[in-house]
Amino acid sequence: MELRALIFDVDGTLAETEEAHRVAFNGAFADFGLDWHWDGALYRKLLAVTGGRERIRHFLAESRPAEAAAWADARIAEMHKHKTGLYHGLVSGGQVPLRPGVAALIAEARRAGLRLAIATTTSRGNVSALLESAAAPDAMDWFEAVGAGEDAPAKKPDPEVYFHVLGRLRLPPAACLAVEDSLNGLRAACAAGLPTVITRSAYVECDSYPGALAVLDDLQGVTLARLAEMHRRAQAPAAG
Ligand code: XBP
Ligand code: MG
N or C end of the chain, less CB within 10 A? Predict the structure, then answer.
């Protein structure tokens, strides 16, 4: 089946956003009068849990078990909303660029008439804040379908967000290619039946990505022709 659409993850794939997320989480903790601090090593581990609210809940259960029960979901949501505001400030200030090769690949795909979509765990507002600053003011319009945290309450590795995007595109998974950076993202995409390419990212430490078509350091120099060839081989592995 011919390649018709590229579906991009956002955090770690389009841009190295996780450091900005980490700084924003710590800012929110401080603004809420908490002595919590997520350093880089801890955050790397916490990234095993996707979704900011879910990550805070997980941190409480693991590191502050005596306090966990007193934290209502609404209070976590309020703190996470504050974190989102701080994150917007960081990405809107232009501190987080697109990763190497991303802009060129998206531009080539648009010229070629390939359909583009996004499947992310973070919120739609976070995606637009990033793209408007790092790509172009109208960059959200380049993506025919944007599946975000609001659209899929079951976060990756659950495939819900990918099923949502495939439904919006009205395409079978075999006509698409997903680009991901994390194991949770890969699992989500594979569970939706999507051929998936990995671009390794700064915060994800992983030795193997089972089921990935390819594991790349980044998208620098990766052309549409190369992705289409990977996709073609995934369709007919026996033919080589
Ligand atoms: C991204 C996430 C998100 C971000 C923070 O995972 O897990 O939770 O870390 O964003 P993926 P929010 O790249 O696999 O989609 O705080 O808005 O959840
Ligand atoms: Mg990611």
Answer: C
The DSSP letter of residue 90 is: H
Catalytic residue among 11, 151, 158, 181: 11
CB-based pocket (< 6 A), ligand 1: 9-12, 18, 21, 50-52, 120-123, 126, 149, 156, 182, 184-185
Are the C-beta atoms of residues 197 and 213 closer than 8 Å to each other? yes
Over residues 16-54, the pLDDT tens digits come to 999 999 999 999 999 999 999 999 999 999 999 999 999
158 is annotated as an active-site residue = no
Residues 6+ apart with CB under 8 A from 123: 84, 148, 149, 150
Residues 222, 95: Cα–Cα separation, whole Å = 24
Q: How far is the CA of 126 from the centre of ligand 2 (A)?
A: 13
Within the chain, residue ranges assigned H as helices are 18-31, 40-46, 52-63, 65-68, 73-92, 102-112, 124-134, 160-169, 183-191, 224-235
218 is annotated as an active-site residue: no
Q: 240 pLDDT exceeds 90? A: no
Choose among 202, 189, 124: nearest CA to 156: 189
Tokens of 201: 């990212």
- Indicate the top mutation candidate among 9, 21, 44, 91 to test ligand 1's pocket, ranked by most ligand atoms within 8 A of CB: 21
Per-residue pLDDT of 161-172, as tens digits, reads 999 999 999 999
